């Protein structure tokens, strides 16, 4: 009779264990299905990460969780902790073990379970930095064999710490989430690239409308100008401004910045210079007034380098002022090369800026080359300077 009772107890215990295992399996399946329902690759990445952490913390009963994603462009800090989730029913500090875990994961690329961090040798000294961490469960986020991040849980709330079943479930969650996260990241990157391309297209359009369609026909002189955009649309600018008595103002400059902001600043520079060139008493007066206008009407971080010359064809005279721009080259009929090295402060930096004017008497065959730093800083496909 006693043997039968003992056997019944053992069978009952086995039945309870099996029921508990089945219950846990059902709960795990519910968790996985719930995760599939609440995340989508068309969501913003941070929302996906937040939901993955929320499901993980709740399903496994951790006090806190984090997700760190690998930043391939940043060699100094390869992982960025983007989402941190704390169980709202417990006050906890924000744990700082993420970097150690990320470094370990890059090397080993497998899950990690530690229930006694203080006495574990895996992260020596880590407990002194993060004293509130008792237990850690960390799994890699792998997408097609590529490590894209790390999913971490800290401090199991129930006694006994994290279990192998917790490790298995979190690995499944990570496996199911990794592809969705990577797709969402790629989707956001593609969307950002489209926006950048739209901005570049608009900036190019603004720049092309501002640049002269053709060089002026000046008796006794050959004049030409060109601008070739590189990968980014910068603020290179040139202009031919017709003045009275057959004189021409010839300007070439470079505004700070890239894209649409640079194109808009270029537009402001062109309008300002044209207005001042037509009304100023002298070339220096034109530059002084243009500088003051730009200083008063642009951001303090914006500036313009500008070379402006005044060609008087009848007198074969070329006057010029330089506001912080590359020195042009003057080549005379003998082939002698000279830098036009009269200079001054770039425009838009200080309100009261004075400029110096110089002049050249031109002869048949003389050449003046005005250029921007896009020429001097040009690189080959191998990124070598020409």
What does this structure look like?
With 386 residues, the chain is α+β, with helices and mostly antiparallel strands. It has 2 domains: 175 residues, Beta-Lactamase (2-Layer Sandwich), CATH 3.30.450.40; 175 residues, PPM-type phosphatase domain (Phosphatase 2c, domain 1, 4-Layer Sandwich). Helices cover 40% and strands 22% of the residues. The strands form 3 sheets. Strands 2-1-5-4-3 form a 5-stranded antiparallel sheet, with helices on both faces. A hairpin with a 5-residue loop joins strand 6 and strand 7. Helix 1 packs parallel to helix 5 and helix 5 packs parallel to helix 6.
- C-alpha Rg, in Å? 35 Å
Classify the fold: give the CATH topology of the largest domain.
Beta-Lactamase
- What's the main sheet like? 5 strands, antiparallel
Helical amount among residues, as a percent range? 40-55%
Number of strands: 13
Features:
386 residues, alpha+beta, Beta-Lactamase, Phosphatase 2c, domain 1, 2 domains, five-stranded antiparallel β-sheet, 8 helices
What does the secondary structure layout of this molecule look like, with pairings?
Elements: H1 2-38, H2 45-60, E1 62-70, E2 79-86, H3 98-108, E3 112-114, H4 126-129, E4 136-143, E5 146-156, H5 164-210, E6 236-242, E7 248-255, H6 259-279, H7 283-297, E8 304-312, E9 317-323, E10 329-331, E11 337-339, E12 358-361, E13 367-369, H8 373-376
Antiparallel strand pairs: 1-2, 1-5, 3-4, 4-5, 6-7, 7-8, 8-9, 9-12, 10-11, 10-13
Helix pairs in contact: 1-2, 1-5, 2-5, 5-6, 6-7
């Amino acid at each position: 009779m006693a043997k039968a009772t003992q056997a019944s107890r053992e069978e009952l215990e086995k039945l309870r264990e099996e029921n508990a295992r089945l219950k846990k399996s059902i709960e795990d399946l519910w968790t996985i299905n719930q995760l599939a329902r609440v995340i989508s690759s068309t969501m913003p990445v941070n929302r996906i990460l937040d939901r993955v952490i929320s499901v993980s913390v709740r399903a496994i009963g951790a006090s806190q969780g984090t997700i760190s994603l690998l930043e391939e462009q940043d060699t100094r800090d390869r992982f960025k902790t983007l989402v941190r989730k704390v169980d709202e029913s417990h006050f906890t500090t924000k744990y700082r073990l993420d970097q150690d875990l990320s470094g370990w994961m890059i090397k080993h690329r497998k899950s990690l379970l530690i229930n006694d961090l203080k006495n574990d040798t895996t992260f020596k000294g880590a407990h002194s930095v993060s004293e509130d961490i008792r237990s850690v469960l960390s799994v890699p986020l792998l997408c097609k064999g590529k490590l894209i991040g790390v999913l971490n849980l800290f401090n199991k709330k129930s006694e006994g710490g994290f279990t192998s079943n917790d490790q298995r479930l979190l690995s499944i969650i990570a496996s199911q989430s990794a592809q969705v996260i990577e797709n969402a990241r790629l989707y956001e990157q593609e969307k950002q690239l489209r926006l950048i391309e739209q901005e570049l297209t608009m900036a190019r359009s603004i720049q092309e409308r501002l640049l002269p369609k053709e060089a002026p026909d000046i008796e006794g002189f050959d004049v030409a100008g060109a601008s070739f955009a590189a990968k980014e649309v910068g603020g290179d600018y040139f202009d031919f401004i017709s003045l009275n008595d057959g004189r021409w103002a010839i300007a070439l400059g470079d505004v700070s910045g890239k894209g649409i902001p640079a194109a808009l600043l270029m537009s402001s520079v062109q309008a300002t210079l044209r207005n001042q060139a037509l009304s100023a008493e002298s070339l220096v007066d034109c530059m002084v007034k243009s500088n003051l206008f730009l200083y008063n009407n642009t951001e303090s971080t914006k500036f313009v380098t500008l070379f402006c010359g005044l060609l008087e064809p009848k007198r074969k005279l070329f006057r010029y002022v330089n506001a912080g721009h590359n020195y042009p080259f003057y080549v005379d009929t003998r082939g002698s090369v000279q830098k036009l090295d009269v200079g001054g402060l770039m425009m838009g930096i200080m309100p009261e800026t004075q400029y110096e004017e110089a002049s050249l008497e031109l002869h048949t065959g003389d050449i003046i080359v005005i250029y921007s730093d896009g020429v001097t800083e040009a690189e080959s496909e191998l990124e070598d300077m020409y």
